[in-house]
Amino acid sequence: MSVQISASDVNKLRQQTGAGMMDCKKALVEANGDFEAAVDYLRKKGAKVAASRQDRDSNEGVIIAKSSADGKTGIVVEVNCETDFVAKNSDFVAFAEKIADVALANTPASLEDLKALTVDGKVISESLIEQTGVIGEKIDVSKYEIVTGEKVVAYIHGNYRLGVLVGLSADVAGADEAGKDVAMQIAAMNPVAIDKDGVDQNTIDREIAIAKDQIIAEGKPAEMAEKIAQGKLNKFFKDTTLLNQEFVKDSSKNIAQFLDSVSKGLTVTAFKRVQLGA
Q1: Are 271 and 167 in contact (CB under 8 A)?
Q2: Measured distance CA(240)–CA(195) in Å, rounded
Q3: Which residues 6+ apart lie within 8 Å of 139 measured at CB?
Q4: 221 CB contacts (<8 Å, ≥6 apart)?
Q5: Contacts 24+ apart (CB under 8 A), 171-177
Q6: Is residue 103 a contact partner of residue 75, using CB atoms and an 8 Å limit?
Q7: Where is the protein found, in the record's own terms (predicted)?
Q8: Which residues on neighbouring strands pair with residue 193, listed in sequence order?
Q9: Which end of the chain is more exposed for a tag (fewer CB within 10 A), N or C?
Q10: Domains of the chain by residue range
Q11: What span, in angstroms and rounded, lies between the C-alpha atoms of 236 and 230?
Q12: CB 218: neighbour CB atoms within 10 A?
């Protein structure tokens, strides 16, 4: 004899798992009314959906950037799905926010360590599989970055499409606003490093080689190439390193000069820029 499944049981299972009403009802029917078995049924269903979608691209999603109440730590995470429709869903954004909150509270050392933490009593890696089953799209956390410092400002740009963390050398008056201005600069201009000392040697060698090839191709003597290439390298540093970039809100200053005007000696100690799907 089949067990009668009440609407309250279905609703209770739905609230606990987040699965759809019909999926919850089917799970309870399959489990003959056994609530724990119904939860296991839904988890297995989620695992099957997840396994079937492992080869799918999940390039949509949201970027969440947050800083701690004391302003000493900031994290940014990228939580992915397959479609823009899901990315805009308030429940999906709330799920991503919870993962970000856990990341900020625990500051795990790696993405793998983050996935081993718990959200609402469940291990994040398992929750991702569960959400995949509920939503029917591959759900994953693909990026996690952390910045610590005297003052860390977090900024989210373009409807959760890009997140920036900026570490400043001091927590001074105006640091929040200045940090946001610098974060917006990073979002717009995508610098490769804080200053030229942060640019790796391979990048420098490549820029010099490209410049020399261009100079020789223009018919200039090879002996001039080295000097001209050095000038082009200096322009590369000016255009692509944060402190040397022209401040987008005031072209009369570079970022180093802007920060110095906020507070003498104020500078950037670290930054992270995470763009959706990049």
Answers
A1: yes
A2: 9
A3: 58, 79, 80, 81, 128, 131, 132
A4: none
A5: 171/71, 172/262, 172/263, 172/266, 173/263, 174/262, 174/263, 175/71, 175/151, 175/262, 175/263, 175/266
A6: yes
A7: Cytoplasm
A8: 241
A9: N
A10: 7-52, 60-194+265-275
A11: 10
A12: 9
The hierarchical CATH code for the domain 60-194+265-275 is: 3.30.479.20
| Region for residue 219 given its phi and psi (left: phi exceeds 0; alpha: psi -120 to 50; beta: otherwise) | left
pLDDT in tens, 47-90: 555 555 555 667 899 999 999 999 999 999 999 999 999 999 99
Which of 126, 2, 139 lies closest to 61, judged by CA? 139
The tokens for 61 are: 């999603």
Rounded Cα distance between 179 and 154, Å, is 8
Residue 180 token pair:
């946001």
Give the integer Cα–Cα distance in Å for 23 and 45. 10
Question: Is the overall model pTM greater than 0.70, yes or no?
Answer: yes
Among the listed residues 220, 156, 161, the one whose alpha carbon sits nearest the alpha carbon of residue 183: 156
* pLDDT 10s digits, 145-166: 999 999 999 999 989 999 999 9
- Give the H/E segment covering residue 260: helix 255-262
Provide the residue count of the chain. 278
CA dist 115 and 19 (Å) reads: 21
Q: What is the CATH number of domain 7-52?
A: 1.10.8.10
- Whether 187 has a pLDDT exceeding 90, the answer reads yes
